[in-house]
Every structure is written in structure tokens, then in C-alpha cells.
Amino acid sequence: MKTDSSQPIYSATKVAAILKRHTAATPPAQSTDPIAALIYAFLLWEASTHQATAALERISKECVDFNEFRVCLPEEIAGMLGPRYPYVEERATRVRRALNDIYRREHKVSLDHVANAGKREQRSYLENLDGMVPFVASRLLVLHFGQPAVPVDDQLVDLFREAKLLSRDDVTASDLGAALSKSVTTLEEATKMHHAFVAWADSVWSEDPNSLMKAKKVRTLMHKAAEAREAKARDEAARQERVRAEVARVEEEKAAAAAKKAARAAAKSIEAKPTKADAKPDAKPSKGDAKPAKPDAKADAKAAKPDAKSPKPDAKAAKPDAKTAKPEAKGAKPDAKAAKPDAKASGKSAKPAVVAKASTEKPVDKKGKK
Fold it and tell me: What does the pLDDT look like over 207-233, one tens digit per residue?
């Protein structure tokens, strides 16, 4: 089988034959309430018309209105659908999330305002509801908001694959839905195609329901395996991210420690090495700076040698004043005169005593003692 992406993903001739075989003369009646249509679309997704109709009847018996159904727990909704309902747990969770999202946005369980919005806003609103699946959004658009679209789920993809209508084995529900929606040009054509595909699935459910349930179980296992692989990949990516963060943290700490060590070494080298100003004190000053005073050799020599003039006050202090010495000298004259009689008595001529120089002898007191 060719897998060229340029060729159609399904055989248009074979699809036309299936549509001709399963198209009803009159389309089935549809509810006019968008909320009822939304719940029914969730019930029809990956199921049959008989299963969806019976489930909606049980919900109507258990709940007064759709707001009460909204506040039911997923376990309670699953109990209303029954344990053998396809994807019962996922279906109950999704429909409850979608209804609660509508209530959070509108403060009521209603889609009346969507009818007055533009086509782009309608599609965006429905596709972005919490828990929404493409099959449900496309069914609402084509049946209640007048936009040509073909709802496709994995059940229809399995039917296409079993009938050998697909040109590739890797076609998904989104791929097939986009291709079929492009092939229709009018709302009537899209509506007829959707009802024909639902009738085809109902016929298979009535003829061989076990084959569809088996296919769903296999697909469920594949989804779980894919989810497990994705979870494992996310865990591994998170682990690698933690390892990278730890390695980066260690490298940053090492770099910071090296920077501190280098800073300390630089500070020590600066302290140990003398600066240029200390090494060359006689360096020439700049033009703007004042010239430093040169040391005076003469001043140093004078400071080293005793000053000749400085001892003079001491000599004067040691040397008696001439004026003060004269009275002492006059006082010494009576002694000389008194000594004259002794000189005559001895027959010797005695000269008067001469006052010694102040520089060599001490002054004599009144008694003549030195």
C-alpha cells in the first residue's frame, strides 16, 4: 500500500458506496436543546445509537434536569450508564467536566448565547470546553450551529480500516475528520454523511458487537501503553533536568570558590609587593603637584654638631659677673693690708694678693677661704 502523503487518505469511490448503502430516506429526529444534544453526543461517542438512547433515558429518570446531572459524581454517572458501556469511566468524567465548564463560564447550564456568536467563536468555544472531544464538537456544529463538519471517532477509523478504505495505516481520527470535512461543501451533504456513518456503525454493533469491543480493548491498551511511555519520558526528562541543574550548581560553586581564592591571592601579592611610590621616593612629581622639599645637609650637620654659641650662657653662669667680683676683690684688700704688718715683721716684702682670673680660680669668701 502506498503511503504518499500527497494522495487522499481514503478511497472516495468506496466511501461513496458505503454512504449510498447506509443513507436513510429521512434523517433521524434531533433534539433542539443544545445541552441535550451535547450530552447525547458524549453518549454516542465510541458507542451505538441504541446504547446512547437507552443511557439518556436512564439519566432523565435519575435526574430532574441537566443541572442536577452536572453536580453528580463521576461514579454516579457511570452507574447510570452501566458497567458494560464503552469507556464508561472516561465518558462520565468528560461529560461532567464539560457541563461544569459551561456553568463556570455562563453561570448556568445553557448554550443559547453560542447560537448568536460568529462561526469562528462557536467553533472555538466548543472545542475548548474542558473534557471536550472532536467528535462531540463537530456533531454540535453540524446539527445545531449550521457549520459543515463530519464527526469522526476512533470507532469510525476502525471501520474504515477493516473495510480497507484507508490509504495509510497511521491515519488518526483527526486526520480522517479533516479530510472528510474538506470533501463536503454544503451543510446538507455533511449532515447526510454523518448520519450514514452512524448507521454504518450501528449495523456493525448489531451484527458483531464483540469485534468492536475487542477493537476498543486493544485501542485502550495501546492508549495506556502510550500514556505510560509519555509518563516515563516526562519522568526521565525531569530527572535529566534535575541532574543538569545539580551539575550547574556544583560548577557555579566551584567557580565562586576559585574566584575567591584568586582574589585572596591577589590581595596577598599586593600587600607583599611595595608600591612604586615606596620603591622610588625621589620620583619626579607631576607638574600640578608641589615639589617636595629636599633634605638640607647643613641643617643635618648643625643638628649633629653642638652649637658653638649654645654653651656661652653656661660659661657666663659659671663665670662670676665682673661687677659682682669687684666687691669681693675690694673685700680682699683689707686682708692684704692686714698682711703688711706681718711682712714687715718678717722682713720680707709682700706684694698684695692678685685676684685670680675668673676663668681658673673660684671666688674667695670673706674669710679668705677658697
Answer: 888 878 887 777 778 777 877 888 889
pLDDT for the residue numbered 278: 55
C-alpha cell at 123: 467553533
Nearest to 132 by CA among 162, 163, 100: 100
Q: What element of type H or E holds 104?
A: helix 88-106
**pLDDT tens-digit map of 283-302:** 555 555 555 555 555 555 55
Class of the CATH-defined domain 12-215: mainly alpha
pTM: 0.62
Using a 10 angstrom Cβ sphere, with 0-12 exposed, 13-18 middle and 19 or more buried, the burial of residue 97 is middle
Report how far residue 320's alpha carbon sits from residue 147's, in angstroms, rounded to the nearest whole number: 142
CA atoms within 13 A on the CB side of 222: 7
Secondary element (H or E) of residue 336: helix 322-346
Residue-range domain boundaries for the chain:
12-215, 216-279, 311-370
**Contact indicator for 27, 50 with CB cutoff of 8 Å:** no
What is the predicted pLDDT for the residue at 13? 92
Integer CA distances (angstroms), 55 to 51, 111, 158, 266, in order = 6, 22, 24, 83
